[in-house]
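Quarterly update from the structural biology core.
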Amino acid sequence: MITVVPVILAGGVGTRLWPLSRALYPKQFLAFSGPQTLFQQTLTRALGLASERCDVARPCVVANEEHRFMVLEQLRELGVHNAALVLEPVGRNTAPALTLAALCALNDSADGVDPVMVVMPADHVIRDQAKFSQVICQAIEEANDKTVVVLGIHPDKPETGYGYIRAEGDSAVKQVQAFVEKPDIETAQAYLTSGHYFWNSGMFVLRASVWLKLIRALHVDIAEATQTAWDARRMDGSFIRPDAAAFAAIPSESIDYAVMERCPVTPELGVCVKMLALDVGWSDLGAWEAVWQTADKDAHGNVQHGDVLMHSCTGTLVQANHRLVAAIGLRDVVVIETADAVLVTCRDNSQDVKKIVAALEKDSRSESMAHRRVHRPWGWYDGIDSGQRFQVKRIMVKPGASLSLQKHHHRAEHWIVVSGTAEVTCGDKKSLLTENQSTYIPLGEVHRLANPGSISLEIIEVQSGSYLGEDDIVRFTDNYGRA
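Predicted structure, tokenized:
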């Protein structure tokens, strides 16, 4: 029986899928088809690898600190309560993330067990689940103390947005000759014609000890700094937190740059890299063009989600999230509507969305970071309106959840219950409010909002004061470790 640890790398931000994907709500936690998010689909695939030969141990999820409650909630929706949730205090790319996962996998394992890690980014689409499991199980059988298995995709076009793998051999398991970075269009066409090049899927199968051996041999600074951060880790409820200062000192490097690209030309390491083709309807949803490619289309090649009316359009993707969007006479265009931003681009230019995000970040605009609706561990709030010295929010609190016991130095608040039951703490008084009832929280008063009921609580909050920023919060107690 082979012990398998699924490793889900969930720390990316997906800037090219803006305005739907944002830094505080990135694409892996969004659902593009069906009820499950990309992260949930990835984890479901991983847990489905259990077989007579493979014992799937608890998964290891490496995610950004900012997304911790989102990860926890999406795991809860799947009924997964035993995952190891390793939180990166800052982003340091995938090589340190995988090093943390390998240390975690070995720490979890019984004495002498060297688990096989199936490493999967959390933002991929896989059409053929059964074939995926078949190929990954074969890769698990191949992975040993001298072999790393990578998963390659047969290219069907000269794609310039992916890295490539050059692999040769007559059998299904091929020998990797080289990893090649994103090519120009002429080189990509030559790769496609040769038949020896595959898209690099970013998925790997290898033993935990093998990764640690390779990272120590090829990037000892990453290995040592990550080990230091891991050794000083602390447990915080469901979360594993590496030491923040030590982790911030780790060089930022990808798995490919740090290790994989150097393995084929460094035989003295005693580790070879093999490849299996993964022809399963794969996409990494790297841009809106990829979303259009993988979606179900109408007779004219159009894809639409939400309240959309289309007339005389072809090859067009329109997604409406908050209002009616009407499109007329569009050809090969992407239109994405959200509450606070609208994207319009030709499909061929959708890779350049990241340049818009860079411009927003340069101007310190909030649209690059968060949606108008901001998710919190207790629910969410939606900024409805604002002006000089006032702000209006719609707030939803989950059943049994509560905000922190807090106060504000610069604002007072009015709360009106729209639906559900609110338990309101204001100073030393506690009261219950139901639909159409309201209360007032004076400036500087200690207060708390909770939902004691079995249905969601929704309120309208009207803030007034000299400063209305989210950082004007003094927390005294909090159920989510933020006090």
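The longest strand covers residues 197-207.
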